[in-house]
TrEMBL record:
Protein name per the record: DUF1178 family protein
InterPro entries (UniProt xref): DUF1178
Organism encoding this protein: Asticcacaulis aquaticus
Length: 145
């Protein structure tokens, strides 16, 4: 797809999308391009500056993507905090007990050391990291089951 800036004989400017560069010429020859302001069929391409990516536009897109990611992680964390049972430092034991059928299945979250997390993963206990709260990062990792 290609976007062209267009101008009619009465200097009305507008934009239109075409499947490729020759599509404009084909549609113009068949009088299929019409000015949305006045209905004129005498339409030509206007001078248009190409979209050039600068480091500024790349930085802005990266900032937008980072902001969106943080918002999504915040929503995930909020959902877990509102809907899962917080088990604190007992997370590894609770997750293992559920996995082994000793405790009933339920959604939990809490803290676990790196060693506890490694052991749970090695033993096939299904866990996932919980995104850290932006305002506080603790030495223990939070996880959910």
């Amino acid at each position: 797809m290609i976007r062209y800036a267009l101008r009619c004989e009465f200097d009305h400017e507008f934009e239109a999308w075409f499947s490729n560069s020759s599509a404009f010429d084909e549609q113009k020859a068949k009088a299929l391009i019409e000015c949305p302001h006045c209905g004129s069929l005498h339409v030509d391409k206007a001078i248009m500056a190409p979209m050039v990516r600068t480091s500024e536009t790349v930085d802005a897109r990266q900032a937008d993507a980072t902001r969106a990611m943080r918002e999504a992680l915040h929503k995930v964390r909020k959902h877990v905090e509102q809907n899962f049972d917080y088990v604190g430092n007992s997370f590894a034991k609770e997750a293992r007990d559920m996995h082994d059928g000793i405790a009933p299945e339920r959604a939990i979250y809490g803290e676990a050391s790196r060693e506890e997390i490694r052991e749970l993963v090695e033993d096939g206990v299904p866990i996932a990291p919980l995104p850290a709260a932006p305002e506080a990062v603790t030495p223990k990792s939070k996880a959910l089951n």
